[in-house]
Design goal:
2031 residues, mainly beta, 5-stranded antiparallel β-sheet, 14 helices, 42% strand, flat, disordered N terminus, disordered C terminus
């Protein structure tokens, strides 16, 4: 029972709670802050602090405080209290009571009500315990006339709480902070005091600093401090001593940026902003004021934030500091929507809108809170919060909190409400059947919004109200309603249909189920039922008991239904629809019966009531206040009792409304209002209700109420730059609109509407907010309220701006002449009255009563006051700052007026150059005194400081420039000449005149980039990939310094790229000309080339571009897409596509088709390879072999030759009818049979398909029979049998292919006979077999003959040959064939009747023999070789394999074509030995390799330069000209450079400059001591080796003068000749001289030996099978057209073994050098050899000359390798001469004066003639010998000076005339008819190797004349004088031989003589140049005649110029000067 009671109590409580809260739910409103506490609160312990927090909401929220961790803030007695209004009070406390968790912590305010809770921002509370502190004064001293800075030093523990309020100038002058100062004193906002223009009088003054604690308001004053003034009057450059690095202000506030600099003179300040692309100066404006060290900005905006730069400068320099201004823009946070109603299960979405001044703000740090608790970040997307599946726990208050990086926070709140949701049953009971007695509990659970109410019924009627029924109901935490019906001790009458009904304002839902109790039928009491007319009545019979069989209804004794409107449902309920009052009212009886027949009856009354209906009513329109109105609510129908009531706005009529309600009758009610007012407006509802229903009808009553003031505007005052709110609020019906207007003039004038704009805000409540009020806002404002009722209301108020005095303009300056009257004015604005005081220097008040010179005027202006100060008869003492000080009730301000009295200024002083550039000089100066004369401008005079000009011209030479900005005291003089000395002086000019000039300043301008481009730019091609670029230096006046080099730019003209590829070329420093070889270029491409010069500053302008095109070349790619198709049996069509355009390398001249048949002949025929040319892309080859496979290759050719060949394409011609069978035999095999055999056609022209044998029987001349028989193609014989005896039979054969039948063989006839003679039916002929195979030689015969075999007429017997076998059939089998088995094999048969003989020619194919390989020429990177093949092995050569390897390297091999007879190996290493050999292949095998040839590429280890050409010492540096180091043909890789000072200590350490110095033009060694002797050691490395040399040099003195003589002599004594100082050079030199002498002796011995073997050699050569190819030719001599039928020798006998020739270029243009070196010569000493075969080995040798000269051609071998290389002594064809074939070694001498570039020029040129240029140059009766094939002879002299200094004029002792020989020189014996020259080949720099010189013969000198002349020479040499009376001298003068008699200068004094080659007389000593010599020809005007006496040489070497006079002719270096056909173009030798 107690359980039931508890449920009942819960039900009552919850029922009351829900019923009471439901009417208020629609009026609930969540909390919102009315006053949110600030983010930071500071207070002192003596004052205490408080935090206000208030909120609004419905119901009224409660305010609580919590800590940062969420714990509640409790009261602490005497320390902390929380007031009932929500204020948190922190009471004053003693220092000992300080608690950090109370006084230095974070608090939060919490506002909460039933809807939810919100939390405020974090409030940082900081309590400061007051402490005593002291302040001191720090004085930053300054010089007189400058500015002193006084700083108030505050202890650090209170620094942030203490500010300087003023300074005290003793005794009682207070200086307050200002933005401008008073001219003398300036207290900055940060507390520093500036004292300007310090004088001696200021030292006696004292100053004190006053500071105030901003929390305790305590004022602390420092002790007095005196100034310290430095007497030094010098210039002190500025330094920033104080600046506000970071200023943070809120928007619309004022910002002050401070930058204080110390300096003397006082610095001038400039301000810049860095907020844009670059620094921009800050300019004064309406909001910006520039006040020296202060930048003030009023009403800052976000655009003002950024970085500012303050620059303080004076004549001593400048200093700067950066300041950052941060503007905290206020942001507004709003949640959209702020109230959101969502049905349960829906999705809620809030968006946090962050704006600033109406504009959206980018991404912020946004946090979301619900009911004061932070939500996890997973629920939000950027600024949006999404709440899915809303449930009851999601409703409440949501907050969006935005936290900025500065730390401040902003927030907004929103409320999430649950929308109305109809009830939903979550749980229901089920039908039950029970026995009476137990307890029963029925449960229903429902959810909905608002919370639904659950009611219970039993059979449609309320539950019985007895003690056994208990109803309980409660609400879960989730808002669900759970209701119980508990029945204790259930009885039979408790049975029935129970229903639970859940209902709220959104709907209702119910659930019903039966509770069956076993028992007899029982019907409960049926209460009176009231039915509503017109609706449906459902009457349920409340029967109990179970089971029930049937239920019936009766009325008036009749069982229902008895009407169509009545229906009894299956469950026994009665339904009547619709109900009618008259017919359905009455008593209804329900009876029930069970199966046993028991029944029960019960009756109930049904009353039908008609519901009321209200007639519509309305209030009249246009009702206004004071009027009357009434209306009637009438019920048109409805049963009594009726009740009529009135409601207003849903509530009963209040008594104060004054409305009267009168019941006119039972069905009508009158509502009357006697006097309408605004409170009567609203909705009036008439409610009519009776027991059936309640009906409402509503009408709107609107009383028009004109506007009336709620808050009436009033006049207001505001201080300037402050904010003000003008309030204006009105009410009325409808709600009036508020409009603000401002008077444009007076109060009664026109008004303009005030609109929203910056700093003007119109609030929603009608208030007007004015921000940063200025004077322009002052005036009359009108607030109008209007709602359309009446005229509206309005109120005019006056806004006054209380303005402290201010000056619209900044300080200004007034300048007057001395003695005039100064007029100083100032206009001040502000509220009157304004008091103006004039002050001098900020402290002395000017009073006319005490100073007779001044007078003061003052007059009022509309905006303020205008004041004027007059000073009469001014002088210099009146100059200075004057202040106009204005004050009124609201403040004071002052303006500086600077008075300057103009006097002639003093000349400037301390003139110096601040910056010197190439064309400008920035000079600065200082004024003589500060503040004396008024300088209007400075005049800077300058001129070139040329001391050679007379002083009288100086004045005329001065140029002037005016400087009109005196405070800067500097000037930039521009448009000067670079690298020029200038004199400067400055004159100050004022209104009173000019000062005297200052002292002169002489400076030199800096060098500048060259202003002019290089001139005469030319580009010419040298090859297909090289361009030679040459140019001339820029004009001297445009160089602007030393030209250090040039940048050469080039690009393809066709490319769209505008950029050039640049290559730097070092210059020689003096602006000399230059050239550059561009290599690796595209072939046949046009290039655009530019050049620019550069000096130590940088590059100059580009030259005008020039264009040049590289030469054509052969195509590098073959034609593409080569195709072939057979057109017929003798024609093929070949087509192709051109090579890619980028690989044609020129203009295609056409194409060449190379084709050859693929046939396996014994020897290839002469027409084996054919070629045809065409310009088309297709060609038809005709006249081909039938049915033959052809190899076809195509190449494209340009003017330069043939390009690459395509890969072989094989194509087969078509079949054709075959030719006739080769032969036919018909022999008699018996009396009636003939044996026919035949040979297939030699040219089958296809595949033989059959043979046709034709037979014809002839009887005399009559043809008796004709027959044709087809035989298979494999059968070559036929035996005709059954023939008639003694008849003539004729046979012939034809062959057939698939094309048809071919020609017939010859007709062979035979007569059958009884006697069968011996005949051979086999065929003989050539038989070709490879070696080691087996061959069968057939010999088939008829007639049973006797056989004999012969080999070359020698009979063969069985077993006679070890590898042969005779078969019984007569065949001869030879196995394991060898070459010796080849020959003629004959078979002879004989049977007594006849005889026959057959011959087989057997040819055995073997591998070829080794080819003979010759080295033709060599360059630094290539080797040219020829070869001739030996025995081909009876098979065509299929190819060659070339093997080569570098010493100690791997062997490489290369496959060469079978047609090749020469090849050039390229890309080899310079100066390296190579081993080369060759092998040939045929189809049988490969030949043995040829003899290994050893050959070295040209080039040697580096040489040695002359010290004078290499070194150029200075005082402290040494310039090393690395380009003067000779490379000897191999490019230099790097240098090793080290030096040391030459001291008495021989072990002094070397200083390493670099051990890997890259080749460059020059390098400078620094850090040397002047006048010091140094030793320099250098190593030069290239791929061929290294050379080392030591040099001594002496640095110059400090002044650049030559060093003392004793140091120079010491250097000469210590210097050692380079070659002897290096043992590596000394030993090879001695060995070379010894080898040279041995060589001469060996040559003489070989010569004599050869004379005796000439005849024997001739016989042996004729016996040799290879001697037919003996004729030699010289492969590389170019034929030159000679005059007088002279010709160049072309046979081996016509050329001297050591003849040396000079080649021109392959292209035939002598103006083109071989390579890029400036003066390189490619020389060749060629070997002559047998003529190379044209195609493989098929070309015959040329016919031998009949008049071949038989003089000796044999010499001993000479090695080109080092003396230690013994392998080279045995090499047969590279370094030595072949005694049998007369082959002389081929050498190439390569000298490069400056370049290390090698040449790949092949000496095997096809050039046939030299250009005319060489002919014309050497035509004028003299010979000019040149070692240079380039036209650049102008550089030769300079280079000779650099390269011959170490040789002591070696070449000057050689002459070109026979008359100039000395005692040591003998004339060589001439040999008839040979043109000879001298050639010396240097193997390396360490050794000398010379050829034997021979006489050069003129073609026009006879042998007899030469002998006679030689005899005269011998006589002249022995007598040491020449006889002019010689009778033959005149004839010899006409035809002199040209002699070259070189000598070796070291051996000259010995007078040694060597035997001549011809054995007649003495030959001259073989002379060669030393290894380091470089030679250039010295031209002479004439050659000394032979009859002139010779000159005698002194012991000392003459000067080269003297030698030119003593020995006219051409002086040659034998190592480089070649006598070639190029130079011999004159008909006779010169006289």
């Amino acid at each position: 029972m107690w359980i039931s009671s508890r449920f009942f109590v819960i039900f009552l409580l919850l029922h009351l709670d829900t019923t009471c809260s439901e009417p208020f739910e629609a009026h609930l409103r969540g909390p919102g802050f009315v006053m949110e506490p600030p983010g930071r609160v500071e207070f002192s312990n003596s004052s205490g602090g408080w935090l206000d927090c208030s909120a609004s909401g419905s119901p009224q929220p409660t305010v609580d405080w919590v800590h940062a961790d969420g714990s509640a803030v409790t009261e602490i007695h005497g320390v902390r209290r929380v007031l009932r209004n929500g204020t948190l009070v922190l009471m004053p406390f003693a220092a000992a009571a300080y608690h950090q968790d109370v006084h230095n912590t974070i608090y939060r305010c919490i506002a909460s009500n039933s809807v939810g809770r919100i939390v405020s921002r974090d409030v940082q509370v900081r309590a400061v315990v007051a402490q005593a502190y002291k302040v001191d004064v720090e004085v930053l001293s300054a010089a007189r006339g400058c500015t002193a800075i006084l700083r108030c030093v505050v202890p650090t523990f209170v620094k942030e709480l203490v500010r300087v309020v003023s300074w005290v100038h003793e005794p009682a002058i207070y200086i307050y902070p200002s933005l401008q100062g008073d001219g003398k004193f300036h207290l900055l906002p940060t507390g520093e005091l500036l004292i300007h223009n310090l004088q001696e009088s200021d030292e006696s003054q004292s100053f004190r600093c006053r500071s105030m604690h901003r929390l305790t308001r305590q004022v602390v004053v420092s002790s007095p401090t005196r100034l310290r003034i430095n007497s030094h009057r010098g210039i002190i450059s500025p330094s920033v001593v104080e600046h506000t690095a970071h200023v943070q202000v809120s928007q619309d506030e004022g910002a002050v940026l401070l930058c204080v600099a110390q300096g003397c003179p006082s610095p001038e300040y400039s301000w810049f902003t860095h907020n844009g692309a670059g620094p921009l100066p800050v300019l004064s404006g309406p909001r910006v004021r520039l006040l020296g060290p202060i930048l003030a900005i009023e009403a800052v905006t976000g655009e003002d934030s950024g970085v500012y730069k303050c620059t303080a400068g004076n004549v001593g320099g400048e200093a700067s500091a950066e300041l950052r201004l941060t503007v905290a823009t206020p942001i507004q946070v709003e949640i959209s929507p702020n109230v959101l109603s969502v049905h349960m299960g829906g999705t809620a979405e809030f968006r946090c809108l962050v704006t600033s001044n109406g504009s959206p703000v980018g991404m912020q740090n946004i946090l979301w809170y619900k009911d004061g608790r932070q939500l996890p970040s997973s629920g939000r997307v950027e600024d949006t919060l999404v709440v899915p599946r809303v449930s009851r726990e999601n409703r409440g208050m949501y907050q969006c909190v935005v936290r900025r990086p500065e730390g401040d926070t902003f927030q907004a709140t929103a409320e999430l409400q649950l929308g109305d949701a109809p009830p939903v049953l979550l749980y229901s009971f089920i039908e039950q059947t029970l026995q009476p007695g137990p307890a029963v509990s029925l449960k229903c659970s429902a959810a909905g919004n608002p919370t639904p109410q659950i009611s219970w019924t039993l059979d449609g009627f309320p539950l019985p109200s007895n003690g056994r029924f208990m109803i309980g109901q409660y609400i879960t935490v989730h808002g669900d309603v759970i209701s119980h019906v508990n029945i204790s001790h259930v009885m039979v009458e408790d049975g029935g249909e129970y229903a639970c009904i859940a209902e709220n304002r959104a709907g209702r839902v119910q659930h019903a189920a039966r509770l069956n109790i076993y028992g007899l039928p029982y019907i409960r009491l049926i209460p009176k039922v009231t039915a509503v007319s017109g609706e449906t009545l459902n009457l349920k019979c409340p029967v109990a008991g179970y089971p029930i069989e049937e239920i019936h209804w009766e009325r008036g004794g009749r069982e229902l239904p008895d009407d169509i409107r009545q229906r009894v449902q299956p469950d026994g309920s009665l339904t009547i629809s619709p109900v009618q009052k008259n017919s359905d009212s009455g008593v209804y009886t329900c009876w029930a019966r069970n199966k046993q027949g028991h029944s029960a009856r019960r009756s109930g009354e049904v009353t039908v009531i008609v519901p009321p209906s209200i007639e519509p009513f309305a209030f009249q329109e246009g009702l206004a206040e004071g009027m009357r109105t009434r209306t009637v609510c009438g019920v048109s129908r409805g049963d009594a009792p009726l009740k009529l009531i009135w409601l207003k706005d849903g509530d009963p009529l209040p008594d104060l409304l004054g409305a009267n309600v009168t019941m006119l009758d039972q069905y009508s009610s009158l509502l009357s209002i006697p006097s309408l007012s605004a409170t009567h407006s609203g909705e009036y509802t008439c409610v009519a209700k009776n027991p059936a229903a309640e009906i409402k009808y509503t009408a709107l009553l609107q009383v028009k109420v004109p506007p009336r003031w709620i808050v009436e505007p009033v006049d207001a005052n505001v201080e300037r730059n402050r904010h003000i709110m003008l309030h204006c609020q009105a009410q009325g019906v409808p709600t009036p609109s508020i409009v603000w207007k401002k008077a444009t003039g007076s109060k009664s004038g026109e008004y303009e509407e005030v609109r929203e704009r910056p700093f003007t805000k119109l609030l929603g409540n009608g208030s007007l907010l004015l921000q940063h009020v200025k004077e322009d806002r002052e005036g009359f404002y009108l607030c109008q309220a209007n709602n359309g009722i009446g005229t509206g209301i309005g109120k005019v108020i006056q806004l006054k701006v209380n303005s402290s005095p201010y000056f619209s303009s900044t300080s200004r300056s007034v300048m007057v002449k001395k003695g005039d009257t100064a007029l100083l004015q100032c206009a001040v604005s502000g509220d009157k009255p304004i008091n103006i005081v004039w002050m001098r220097s900020g402290k002395n008040t000017l009073n006319p009563s005490t100073n007779y010179k001044i007078s003061v005027k003052q007059e009022a202006t509309p905006d303020g006051v205008s004041a004027e100060l007059q000073i009469r008869t001014v002088d210099a003492t009146d100059s200075g700052p004057y202040f106009c000080r204005a004050s009124n009730l609201y403040g004071n301000d002052q303006q500086l007026v600077q008075l300057q009295v103009q006097e002639p200024p003093l000349p400037p002083s301390v003139l110096e150059a601040a910056m010197i550039s190439s064309r400008s000089v920035n000079i600065k100066w200082q004024p003589k005194t500060l503040g004396t004369g008024d300088v209007t401008k400075y005049i800077v005079e300058f001129r070139e400081a040329d001391r050679s000009l007379p002083p009288a011209l100086f004045v005329e030479q001065w140029q002037q420039m005016e400087v009109k900005d005196p405070p800067h005291f500097n000037a930039m003089i521009e448009n000067l000449k670079p690298a020029t000395r200038y004199a400067f002086r400055v004159i100050a000019e004022g209104s009173a005149g000019r000062s005297a000039p200052s002292q002169e300043l002489v400076v030199r301008t800096e060098p500048q980039r060259p202003a002019g481009p290089p001139l005469s730019l030319s580009a010419r091609p040298l090859s297909s990939t090289e361009l030679l670029i040459s140019w001339v230096a820029p004009l001297p006046e445009l160089r602007h310094g030393d030209i250090q080099g040039y940048n050469v730019g080039y690009k393809l003209s066709s490319s769209g790229n505008t950029a050039y590829n640049f290559t730097s070329v070092s210059g020689d420093g003096d602006g000399g000309n230059g050239e550059l070889l561009l290599s690796g270029l595209a072939k046949f491409a046009r290039y655009t080339v530019v050049v620019q010069a550069f000096n130590q500053v940088g590059p100059g302008p580009l030259s005008e571009p020039t264009a040049a095109q590289t030469m054509e070349d052969v195509p590098s790619r073959p034609p593409e897409d080569v195709r072939c198709a057979a057109l017929s049996s003798q024609s093929l069509q070949v087509s192709w596509q051109p090579p890619p355009i980028y690989h044609t390398n020129g203009l295609l001249q056409g194409y060449k088709l190379i084709f050859e048949p693929i046939i396996d002949d014994i020897q290839p025929s002469k027409d084996e390879v054919e070629s045809r040319k065409t310009t088309a892309l297709t060609m038809v080859l005709t006249g081909l072999r039938k049915y033959t496979n052809y190899s076809i290759q195509v190449l494209a050719h340009t003017r330069m030759g043939d390009g690459a060949v395509s890969k072989p394409l094989f194509c087969h011609s078509e079949e054709d009818v075959p030719e006739a069978p080769a032969d036919i035999k018909v022999v008699s095999s018996s009396s009636q049979s003939l044996y026919i055999s035949w040979l297939p056609p030699t040219e089958p022209n296809g595949v033989i398909t059959k043979f046709s044998l034709y037979t014809r029987v002839v009887n005399g001349r009559e043809e008796l029979n004709n027959e044709k028989r087809s035989l298979p193609s494999q059968q070559a014989y036929y035996e005709a049998k059954g023939l008639h005896p003694h008849m003539e039979y004729q046979f012939w054969v034809t062959a057939s292919t698939r094309v048809g039948e071919g020609k017939s063989s010859r007709v062979s006839s035979q007569i059958t006979t009884n006697r069968v003679p011996a005949r051979i039916i086999s065929f003989g002929g050539a038989v070709v077999r490879p070696w080691r195979s087996t061959v069968t030689l057939p010999c088939t015969a008829v007639g049973k003959p006797k056989r004999e075999w012969f080999k070359s007429d020698v009979a063969l017997r069985q077993g006679g040959m070890h590898n042969s076998q005779l078969l019984d059939s007569g065949d001869l089998i030879i196995s394991s064939l060898q070459l010796a088995d080849g020959g003629n094999y004959s078979c002879q048969v004989d049977n007594g009747i006849g005889t026959d003989r057959l011959t087989h020619v057997l040819m055995v194919q073997v591998p070829p023999t080794a080819p003979t390989l010759y080295i033709t020429s060599a360059t630094s990177s290539s080797i040219l070789m020829h070869w001739k093949c030996g025995f081909t092995g009876n098979a065509p050569i299929t190819g060659y394999t070339l093997f080569y390897r570098r010493a100690n390297g791997n062997t490489d091999e290369m496959q060469l074509s079978r047609h090749a007879s020469s090849h050039e190996l390229k890309g080899l290493v310079c100066g390296s030995p190579y081993q080369i050999y060759l092998s040939a292949q045929n189809k049988v095998g490969t030949s043995p390799t040829s003899t290994i040839l050893h050959v070295r590429t040209q080039g040697h280890s580096p040489g040695h330069p002359a010290s004078t050409a290499l070194l150029a010492p200075n005082s402290t540096s040494l310039m090393v000209r690395l380009h003067s180091w000779p490379d000897n043909g191999c490019p230099l890789l790097y240098f090793v450079l080290q030096y040391r000072a030459v001291t008495d200590d021989p072990e002094s350490e070397w200083v390493l400059v670099s051990n890997a110095l890259k080749p460059q033009r020059r390098v400078v060694v620094n850090n040397l001591q002047p006048s010091t002797l140094y030793q320099l050691r250098m190593e030069a490395h290239n791929v061929a080796g290294l050379s080392q040399a030591d040099f001594s040099f002496v640095t110059l003195t400090k002044d650049g003068d030559p060093p003392p003589p004793e140091i120079i002599h010491r250097g000469h004594r210590g210097q050692t000749t380079v070659i002897f100082a290096n043992i590596n050079l000394l030993i090879p030199t001695i060995a070379a001289i010894s080898g040279m002498l041995c060589t001469i002796i060996m040559v003489i011995v070989c010569y004599r030996h050869k004379q005796s073997n000439i005849q024997k050699e001739s016989l042996e050569n004729r016996a040799n099978s290879e001697a037919a190819q003996r004729e030699r030719y010289y492969a590389t001599i170019h034929k030159v057209s000679m005059q007088n039928n002279d010709k160049i020798p072309e046979t081996s006998e016509d050329i001297s073994p050591y003849a040396t020739f000079q080649l021109s270029e392959a292209g035939g243009n002598m103006s083109q050098p071989h390579h890029g070196g400036p003066a390189n010569t490619l020389l060749h000493s060629f070997m002559y050899h047998e003529r190379a075969l044209a195609e493989g080995c098929s070309s015959p040798p040329p016919a031998a000359s009949k008049n071949r000269r038989r003089h000796s051609r044999k010499t001993e071998p000479e090695s080109e390798e080092s003396e230690s290389d013994q392998d080279q002594l045995t090499s047969s064809r590279t370094e030595s001469s072949n005694q049998h074939e007369g082959k002389i070694k081929h050498s190439i001498i390569y000298h490069g004066a400056q370049s290390s570039t090698s040449s790949d020029l092949s000496p095997m040129s096809e050039q046939k003639s030299l250009p005319r240029r060489g002919r014309s140059r050497y035509h004028h009766q003299q010979y000019q010998f040149s070692t240079n094939t380039t036209p650049r002879h102008h550089n030769s002299n300079k280079m000779n000076n650099n390269t011959t200094s170490n040789t002591n004029t070696t070449a000057t002792n050689t002459t070109a005339t026979p008359s100039t020989s000395s005692n040591s020189n003998k004339i060589l014996s001439p040999r008839g008819g040979n043109l000879k020259s001298i050639s010396s080949t240097f193997k390396s720099q360490d050794s000398i190797q010379c050829h034997i010189p021979t006489l050069v013969k003129s073609p026009s000198i006879s042998t007899q004349q030469q002998k006679q002349f030689h005899k005269q020479q011998l006589q002249s040499s022995s007598n040491s004088q020449h006889s002019s009376s010689n009778p033959n001298s005149s004839s010899l003068k006409q035809q002199q031989p040209l002699l070259i008699t070189p000598k070796l200068h070291q051996l000259e004094a010995n007078g040694q003589e060597l035997l001549g080659l011809d054995g007649i007389g003495n030959s001259p000593l073989v002379a060669c140049m030393p290894p380091s010599s470089q030679f250039r020809p010295i031209p002479h005007k004439s050659i000394m005649p032979a009859h002139e006496p010779p000159h005698h040489h002194n012991h000392q070497q003459p000067h080269p110029q003297q030698q030119q006079q003593q020995h006219p002719g051409t002086l040659l270096n034998p190592s480089t000067a070649m006598l070639s056909s190029k130079f011999f173009t004159a008909p006779t030798l010169p006289k």
